[in-house]
Amino acid sequence: MKIENKDNEKSMLHSRNKHKERYDLKLLGKNCPGLIPYIKLNPIGEHTIDFSDNKAVLFLNKALLAKYYNVKNWQIPEGYLCPPIPGRADYIHYTADLLSEANEGTIPKGKRINVLDIGTGANCIYPIIGSQEYGWKMTGSDIDPISVKTARLIVQSNPTLAKKIIIKEQKNSDNIFEGIIEKNERYDITISNPPYHASEDAANKANLRKLKNLSKGKMAEQKARFNFGGSPGELWCKGGEYKFIKKIADESSGFSAQVLWFSTVVSKRDNIESLEKHLKRVGACEIKIMKMAQGQKTSHILAWSYFSAVDQKRWAKDLW
């Protein structure tokens, strides 16, 4: 099994990621005054925030989106996922690298590039980053009506997003692509960051461990709460990550002629080998695995295509 990584493991984030350097929190506070009350000094005199405080994380995201992605109006319902933006940006940049391989090494930009984000969530982060970094036409799908409504409101509230992002509601919980990809539509790549946990209990226990680490053990007696938020469909589903990705793989074969690349984040390395074998069984022509690293966390992007390398280049020539 070949693991591809374009960056040195110690360099962590992708080379084009705008968040490789330490946050300038004072500057971010100017873009989002609501962040200012949460900025404090750490023991060595550096500005920081309490990453175990979900309000602080929310305002940090608002500030990052305002400064780096031209999104001035962004709000999510209480309890919904407020994801760490640097890691989300990495996925988009690796996606761009993957598409460039069919385009003589040049990253394709502009509205001719169609990207589908499965389970976009109320935060709409992937469509925001894809549309602002590369000018891509982004479509986000979700089964949760509140997420769909909120994501649409974010798009409508920001002129920089309004003509670049479409949000679709998946009305059938048994489907991933059916009902979202229309008969004559083509997508250059689909992306997904699946629910990691198999149950609410597992998600709560994992989050409590994380909060203990962030607060150096001072929260041992507190009930688990999510500093990045997260509704059931965003953090856990029956069967967890493996079952969700397997379902994407199974359905992808039915849309093999309409999508150049399918992809997903795989957080559990142990799942990669069995998923790769399953993709071969469903007929994937090419499979790629790319490593992403952020701090102490390492995950992978699993991508597959039903097109040969020659046909991928033909797709790019005809459509880009």
Task: Report on this structure.
This protein has 320 residues and is an alpha/beta fold. It has one domain (77-319): Rossmann fold, CATH 3.40.50. The chain is 36% helix and 16% strand. The protein is built from 10 helices and 9 strands. It has helices at 25-31, 54-69, 85-100, 125-134, 145-157, 200-214, 232-235, 240-252, 272-281, 309-319; strands at 40-41, 47-48, 114-118, 137-142, 165-169, 187-192, 259-266, 286-294, 297-305. Strands 5-4-3-6-7-9-8 form a 7-stranded mixed β-sheet, with helices on both faces. The longest helix is centred in the first third of the chain and has 16 residues, at 54-69. The chain is globular.
Structure, briefly:
Helix content is 36%, strand content 16%. The protein is α/β, with parallel strands linked by helices and 320 residues long.
Number of strands: 9
Superfamily (CATH H level) name: Vaccinia Virus protein VP39
From the spread of the alpha carbons, the general shape counts as: globular
Q: What is the N-to-C succession of helices and strands?
A: HEEHHEHEHEEHHHEHEEH
The value of Rg in angstroms is 19 Å
What is the count of distinct domains?
Answer: 1
CATH architecture call: 3-Layer(aba) Sandwich
CATH third-level topology: Rossmann fold
Helix content: 25-40%
Low-confidence blocks of residues: 1-10, 202-207, 219-228
DSSP strand (E) fraction? 15-25%
> What is the end-to-end distance?
31 Å
Largest sheet: 7 strands, mixed
Tally of separate helices: 10
Find the structural class using helix and strand composition.
alpha/beta
Give the overall average pLDDT: 87
- CATH class wording: Alpha Beta
Strand order of the largest sheet: 5-4-3-6-7-9-8
